[in-house]
Amino acid sequence: MKNRNHSLLAFTLIVVAALYLPGCSRNGNNANSANGGQPDSSSAGSSAAEAPQSVNIPAGTELHVILGTTIDSARSQTGDSFEGTLSQPILAGGGVVVPRDARVRGTVVEARSSGRLSKPAFLSVAITGVQAGGSWVDVHTRPVTLEGKSHKKRDIVAIGGGSALGALIGGIAGGGKGAAIGAGAGAGAGTAGAALTGKKEISLPAESRLIFRLSRAATVRVR
Description:
The longest helix is centred in the N-terminal third of the chain and has 33 residues, at about 1-35.
């Protein structure tokens, strides 16, 4: 009798399991089918919204830069690197793609110390990278070029044949900080105003402000 009861109980459990498990499987499949067999669509949508988007910054876009260190024709060498920050955000695609105060880096394209009257001081600098979205993006800008035209002018040198002084603000001729360079008529041609030292060298003190323009389009990824 006990064996018969045990057999009946075992048979009953098998039947119940056979009926229950397929139902669970169907319910799980139905749930997946409701989502198209994919993970929760809300999670997928959230991930897509947070994915970085590529934005093109067109050639000609201005980069307003504050120098982080002094650059001058006497001590700087061709190929030297320098860093600075943006004084204004970079706008493209209808919004800000690189914020104000983002770091930039650049290179001294050419530096020549003052010599005789036939060899005035010469300084040319360009921006080569901008930090955007936590990573560095290579950029190409037209160089800002400064050249001493006459050793008789001790205080200020006008460069590139543009406006007489560009925009010279903040006592740069005396070596002071906060000078604004490259604005106004001279800025469009990459010209600027700068100080000539006692030895008639060209000096761009730290915190000088220069305007560069992209010579090629650049692509950044933003969220």
